[in-house]
Amino acid sequence: xxxxxxxxxxxxxxxQEKGQYLTFLIGGEMFAISILGxxxxxxxxxxxxxxxxxxxxxxxxxxxxxxxxxxxMSARFGRAASEVTRRSCIVIIEVEADDxxxxxxxxxDSVSEVLEISAVDIEPAPSFGARIRADFISGMxxxxxxxxxxxxxxxxxxxxxxxxxxxVNGIEGSSEVLSISSNS
Length: 184
Known about the structure:
Helix content is about 20%, strand content about 40%. The protein is of the alpha+beta class and about 180 residues long. Strands 8-1-2-11-10-9 form a six-stranded mixed β-sheet. The chain has a five-stranded mixed β-sheet with strand order 3-6-7-5-4. β6 (about 90-95) and β7 (about 100-110) form a beta hairpin. α4 (about 160-170) packs antiparallel against α5.
């Protein structure tokens, strides 16, 4: 096999190892989620608040007839709720729970861009030192000398865990509302 053919094969392997990630800001920090689970990005608005939900559930939206819960990522990380600005938007993400796919909206401060990050440029999640739970992080992507926190959307937006947290906080019936609204 010639050197040119080997280089082409090597380039094809490296290309397969690259993933595309949507980057966005929350509280001045850059985060990323694989674009494979992202359905769309919509303007922030038309939220219906649901009484007695945990602080990190902003409410629900009607997305083409489906009821979609909207999570404030900043509050989900245990921080103050996001301040809504003209750049705030909702990213609709498809998460998998119990072999079912469910749409969940995520409030972010602003969407940045889609980046390709090679597998070799992704470090494992730190076991300590991050300001969010380690199991929420699938890796730390190195982009232009900076780290981007790559989130594990299925863990961050685990409907089962969010429903359990609703029950733990003494909110009766809220886990029912969360599971009903997210299964639509």
